[in-house]
Each structure stands twice: as structure tokens, then as C-alpha cells.
Amino acid sequence: MKGLEISFRDVGHSDAVEQHIREKAGKLTTTFDDIIGIRAVVAMPHNHSYKGKLAHVSLEIGLPGQTVAITRDQHDQHEHEDMYLAVSDAFDKATRKIKQIHDKRTDKARRAGA
After folding, report:
1. What's the rounded Cα separation, in Å, for the pair 38 and 23?
2. Domain 4-113: which CATH class?
3. How far apart, in whole angstroms, are the C-alpha atoms of residue 29 and residue 53?
4. pTM of the full structure
């Protein structure tokens, strides 16, 4: 996919996680064709021992005239010890946000034509 940048912080590079991100990004760009680029950052910062290691996923999605920033930084969600689930949650949130923006733009265009 053109315009996809993936970074790993405080965690080793994983081909499997990168492939999971590529699949999710590909699905997102086929759903919304006006996406210019996606930047994904996967981090596993050091947390207190009682919380475990929780994955943090940040997405920046470029749209014409706008950038959508998504951060999945849930300290209380122990499911996010699974990096794949954290990535999926971030892309699900991104899909909802971009759909909201897309619907708003479509509605404005429809009203302007009326």
C-alpha cells in the first residue's frame, strides 16, 4: 500500500504484527479511497509491574485537508497485552472516525447541490 509507514518503539520489530497492520490498512484504504497515507506506531512502554505490559497503538491517517489521529492507550484494558488486539481496536476506532468524517462531507456536498 502506498503511503503506509510503520514504526515500532520499545519493542522489537515483528513481521507478523507488521503484516497485520498492512492488512488492516489495506482494508481501510479500500473502504475509503480518499485516504492519502497512514502512519502507525506500535509501542510497548514500560509500565508498573502490576499492570503488565500493555501495547499502545497510534495511527495518523491523512485525508484531503485533514489528519485523523487515533491513540489506543488504555491502561485499564488488560486485553491490550495482546498486540494484535490493540492494533485491531485502533483500526476499528479509525474506521468509525473516518466514516463519521466521510458521512459529514457527503452530507455537506449533497446539501450544497440542493
Report:
1. 12
2. alpha beta
3. 30
4. 0.82
pLDDT at 101 > cutoff 70? yes
Which residues 6+ apart lie within 8 Å of 22 measured at CB? 1, 4, 6
**Cβ atoms of 4 and 19 closer than 8 Å:** no
For residue 101, the surrounding DSSP H or E stretch is helix 83-113
Reduced DSSP (H G I as helix, E B as strand, rest coil) percent helix, strand, coil of the chain, to 5 = 45, 25, 30
Q: b/e per residue, 58-84, with b = 16+ CB within 10 A?
A: bbbbebeeeebebebeeeeeeebeebe
Domain-wise residue ranges, the chain: 4-113
- pLDDT mean across residues, the chain: 84
Phi, psi of 8 (to 5 degrees): -120, 130
What are the pLDDT digits (tens) for 65-93?
A: 899 999 866 555 566 578 898 899 999 99
CA distance 114 to 105: 14
**CA 108, CA 99: separation in Å to the nearest integer?**
14
